[in-house]
Amino acid sequence: MAYEKAFALLRIVTGILFFIHGIAKLQRGMAAVVMTFGDLGLPGWLAYLVLIVEVIGGLALIIGVGARYAAWGLAAIMAGAIVTVKWVKGFVGGYELDLILLLVTICVGLKR
Length: 112
Description:
Blueprint: H1 2-28, H2 30-39, H3 45-63, H4 67-86, H5 91-110
Helix pairs in contact: 1-2, 1-3, 1-5, 2-3, 3-4, 4-5
């Protein structure tokens, strides 16, 4: 019982983090986000996909509806962020937060 409550709290807080990151992209302006993706050598349309997955996936984790499916999309975003941006920065100040979010989303995706 305590495990289920702790897991739900972890899922909800993780959902809040992703949702806020998606909203931050909107507040920054998608033109700037698309440009950042382009500067990284990524296609601009990917910025919109990441935004959609972060906002909708974050909400799914928060409310618990479709959370397992959303978690896999969020895990893919974290894996992509680690590989394309964060790895070269090293662990501290680089990919440590992305790694824990990747692992949490994998756990949510595997939850039955």
